[in-house]
Amino acid sequence: MKQVILAAHFPGVNNHTVWSDPASGSQIEFSSFVHLAKTAERGRFDFFFLADGQRLREQRGRIHDLDVVGRPDSLTVLAGLAAVTDHLGLAGTINATFNEPYDLARKLATLDHLSGGRAGWNVVTSSDAFTGENFRRGGYLDHSQRYERAEEFVRTVRELWDSWKADDLDVDPVAGTFAAENAGAFAHQGAFFDIAGRFNVPRAPQGHPLTIQAGDSDGGREFAAANADAIFSRHGTLQDGRAFYRDVKARVAAHGRSPDSLKILPGATFALGDTDAEAQENADHIRRQQVSPQTAILLLEQVWNRDLSSYDPEGPLPEIDPLVSDDSIIKGRTRQTSDPLRTAAQWRALAEEKRLGIRDLIIEVTGRQSFIGSPARVAEEINEFVQSDASDGFILVPHLTPTGLDEFVDKVVPLLQERGVLRAEYETTTLRGHLGLGESV
Predict the structure, then answer these.
(1) Annotation-wise, does 52 bind a ligand?
(2) The Luciferase-like domain covers which part of the protein (predicted)?
(3) DSSP tag of 207
(4) Which distant-in-sequence residues (6+ apart) come within 8 Å of 402 by Cβ?
(5) Omega prior to 402 cis, within 30 of 0
(6) Binding site annotation covers 140?
(7) In whole angstroms, what is the distance from residue 174 CA to residue 411 CA?
(8) pLDDT tens across 285-339, in order?
(9) Do 192 and 265 belong to one domain?
(10) Are β-strands 58-59 and 171-172 bridged in parallel, bridged antiparallel, or unpaired?
(11) Is 356 helix (H, G, I), strand (E, B) or coil?
(12) Cα(17)–Cα(5) distance, rounded to whole angstroms?
């Protein structure tokens, strides 16, 4: 029976965070990160996952409401968490477009040493000039080149990590020198990077810190199949999950890798109750908190690419069509659809069929994979996804910071442990070990 992989996503900067709930705490104080991480470790989760962003997002020229607390640096937070956790993996999103291989390889190797082999990074890309302005690189990278640069970036980082071998740490006690004189020596010449020198951090405990990739596009799947240890995906049903699983695992094999060497981990939310009916009531309440009237209009604007602030959130969809233009109303955020006219037509049909106003429609169409029910039902459904090869586990996104994971750990985790699909105690010391991947050699 397959083991269920679980990760905890800190929900500070995503659409599903409920800011207005009285139980919601700070999105940026270190105590919030500590609480969620320690809760995840108490639940014997595999890793803690932290999002990141290189610029405050904007819509209609105004800072996006989810960014009001700023966007703290992932690696700094994870380094702090390394000191207050013992087993939990620590993974953060890092942009391969606006970083340099040497600097990032050094930081990740350092985190892996500080944590005893628990570091991981989620490789993301960006091609927009808006984000590039923070780096004086506005528009320099064509969209088609983002994965090309990312692939060379990952390859270069791994070359740097591999520049130290195990015997480079052996010291001659008489001469006081390294056994290998070439420790840290590297030279890379490629389309995007031309660097040479000596890497100054000894080989990390994991060899290569865990590499995660987020994306469901064809390019993203291919990139993950060739380079990643895990893929952060989205799919809402068992059928869709199985199709994605088969597709990506086949791509992995085509790259000469074992299908088990890439773990598929969709993001998922959850809502619990003593009964399934109570859980559904809780889920409905949470969704209405997540999609306020203001948020509904903002999300609709992201498809229509127009200022819709004058529309009634409880009223009908606009009769005008989305504005198809290269100039997006949202900045610093990926567009939610590649075909806005088609999406608008689908939403209009759904709204007419179910008699939905704007807010109720947005609530229905923007929900992600969610487990709703009693603890027993949620444990059963999570296990069914994994055992039927619809995923290898889940990255759970609670709706509250920092206590949103507490109920899951208290009520669902014991049931997964009783089934024998989730560890009762940690048996390995590294993040790669937790996921059954072993040290990268």
Answers:
(1) yes
(2) 24-388
(3) B
(4) 10, 25, 26, 31, 32, 33, 34, 35, 36, 39
(5) yes
(6) no
(7) 58
(8) 999 988 989 889 989 999 999 999 999 999 999 999 999 887 788 777 666 677 8
(9) yes
(10) unpaired
(11) coil
(12) 23
Whether residues 227 and 356 share a domain: the answer is: no
Radius of gyration of the chain (CA): 23
Give me the number of domains the chain comprises: 2
How many CA within 13 A on the CB side of residue 278? 7
Give the CATH number for residue 119: 3.20.20.30
Single-letter amino acid, residue 17? T
Cα angle for residues 366, 369, 373 (degrees, 5° grid): 115
Report d(CA 66, CA 13) in Å as an integer.
6
Q: Is 112 annotated as a binding residue?
A: no
Task: Give the C-alpha separation, 221 to 231, whole Å.
Answer: 8
Report which residue type is found at 72. Answer: P
pTM value is 0.91
**What whole-number distance in Å separates Cα of residue 344 and Cα of residue 130?**
26
On whether both 416 and 392 belong to a single domain, the answer is yes
Per-residue CA distances from 234 to 37, 179, 212 (Å):
23, 48, 14
Pair 241, 101 in one domain: yes
Query: Residue 78 in contact with residue 39, Cβ under 8 Å?
Result: no
pLDDT digits (tens, 9 = 90+) for 5-29: 999 999 776 667 787 788 888 888 9
Give the C-alpha separation, 380 to 392, whole Å.
14
Same domain, 311 and 397: no
Residue 233 amino acid letter: S
The tokens 């990255």 sit on which residue?
395
Of 365, 382, 398, the last residue of a domain is 365
The contacts of residue 373 (CB under 8 Å, 6+ apart) are 272, 273, 276, 279, 280, 381
Give dist(CA 131, CA 328) in Å, integer.
13
Whether 287 is covered by a domain: the verdict is no
Alpha carbon distance 411, 409 (integer Å): 6
Does 58 share its domain with 186?
A: yes
